[in-house]
């Protein structure tokens, strides 16, 4: 029942009201039917929408990619114990082999191919910092691959905000997310 769902929506009582909505980074199709109408209505009625990051800004995407890389001249193979690196490489080879069978006909119909998708997700993995490789590996599952091409909830809402010509912004900069993750030592990762 819609009325029984937790909306993750907080209202800041002022005139006009402001809203704070908690999202998660999953394909919006997995959660959209569970978002209560009060949250959807608040979004529709809002003229200005701020997101965690501006995922529609090419600079943001470029900065996110750059922040994941090891310093120039360093490679993951030099940082990881040999056995872990070997197992990681074997796993990524397995994923690359399996990916064509994980893809949906709809994805192929939209021109999304396994090699392209693998490279988009895992390309240049040898140059990424361990924490980002860990996050990457966690997203290389059959379920996640089948949902690629569907925007995560945050991006979907940002695209909708643009389509509806709402003013948008971001509350964080890439560096504010990147530096804490990059500051983790190997044992923390």
Question: What keywords describe this structure?
Answer:
189 residues, mainly alpha, two-stranded antiparallel sheet, 11 helices, 51% helix, cell membrane, TIKI1/2-like
In percent, how much strand structure appears in the residues?
5-15%
Strand order of the largest sheet: 1-2
Distance between the termini: 40 Å
What is the percent of helical residues?
40-55%
Counted by DSSP, the helix tally is 11
Total tally of structural domains: 1
Keywords: Cell membrane, Glycoprotein, Hydrolase, Membrane, Metal-binding, Metalloprotease, Protease, Signal, Transmembrane, Transmembrane helix, Wnt signaling pathway
GO molecular function: metal ion binding; metalloendopeptidase activity
Subcellular location: Cell membrane; Membrane
GO biological process, one term: Wnt signaling pathway
Description:
This protein has one domain (9-183). It has a two-stranded antiparallel sheet. A two-stranded parallel sheet has the order 3-4. It is 51% helix and 8% strand. It has helices at 28-31, 37-45, 58-67, 76-79, 82-102, 105-109, 114-122, 130-138, 142-146, 153-163, 174-182, and strands spanning 9-12, 18-21, 48-51, 167-170. It is globular, with a radius of gyration of 19 Å. It is built from eleven helices and four strands. The protein is mainly alpha-helical and 189 residues long. β1 (9-12) and β2 form a beta hairpin. α5 (82-102) packs antiparallel against α7 (114-122).
């Amino acid at each position: 029942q819609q009325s029984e769902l937790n909306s993750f929506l907080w209202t800041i009582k002022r005139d006009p009201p402001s809203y704070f909505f908690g999202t998660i980074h999953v394909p919006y199709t997995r959660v959209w039917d569970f978002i209560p109408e009060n949250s959807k209505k608040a979004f529709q009625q809002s003229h200005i929408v701020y997101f965690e990051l501006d995922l529609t800004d090419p600079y943001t995407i470029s900065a996110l990619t750059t922040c994941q890389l090891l310093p120039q001249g360093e490679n993951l193979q030099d940082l990881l114990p040999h056995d872990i690196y070997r197992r990681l490489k074997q796993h990524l080879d397995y994923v690359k082999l399996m990916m064509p069978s994980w893809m949906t006909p709809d994805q192929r119909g939209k021109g999304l191919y396994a090699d392209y998708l693998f490279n988009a997700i895992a390309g240049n993995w040898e140059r990424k910092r361990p924490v980002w490789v860990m996050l990457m590996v966690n997203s290389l599952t059959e379920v996640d691959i089948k949902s690629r091409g569907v925007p995560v909830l945050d991006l979907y809402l940002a695209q909708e905000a643009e389509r509806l010509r709402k003013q948008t912004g971001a509350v964080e900069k890439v560096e504010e997310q990147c530096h804490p993750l990059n500051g983790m030592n190997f044992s923390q990762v």
